Amino acid sequence: MIPRAILNEHKCIDANCILSGYRGSIAHGTYVPDHIDDKDVMAVCVPDVEWYFGLGSQAFPANGTKEIKKDEWDIVAYEAKKFIFLLAQGNPNVLSMLWLNPKHYIKMTENGHHIVDNRHLFVGRHVYKSFTGYAYSQLHRMTAYTFDGYMGTKRKELVDKFGYDTKNAANLIRLLRMGIEFLKDGELYVEREDASQLLDIKMGLWTLEQVKTESSRPFDHAEDAYIHSTLPKGPDIRGISHLSVEIIRSVLNTRLFEGDLPDEISKLS
Q: Is 23 helix (H, G, I), strand (E, B) or coil?
């Protein structure tokens, strides 16, 4: 779990958080401790009322995104409307938060649960471009040799050893497979049944040519899955907009009831 010292510093992942969970390798079942993996977490928050009705809040950025990096912890917190907007765009990393294995949720309030319960609103064929686009970026980064974050040094050692970024390679294959599955079933299988194979790739047991060959087929399959998909053309924008209003209003009204907001906000009721 996230250390209490980090939680105490950031209300967006503690008191103001309505939903949080593990993302990345922990959620996919491919986490290797002390290897090249951070402990990745995503959180959804409703900031203080000043963020919505005042001149902003020093506690949370105006762009609706806050990144927190401390030792092996890599945490990104989204304001709820920003999170819902990214869901509607079909962002693969953000969509995964709605299909986590229950054991991988860290915090889920009633409002957070409400978002997960309405994940059907975000299902559509539009995700094809998002998943393949992210996959293409991993394909490029696989040989671009850029390193950052807590595990950057260890990741560079693997690239020096195998000649390509094995973690990007595993992400490339996973994204393509998840995109195809989603286009067929309307479900994201975040915890991977193919985790052992993805681990083999991440550990450098595949050559670069094997990875390129394996990825060429799913790119073709993804296009075919898109063409034959029976999913809606895009997300339910009207339903999503209503959901966003419900979530923000519910949280702020709860704070009003608890005496945390000025009386003027009662008009939200």
A: coil
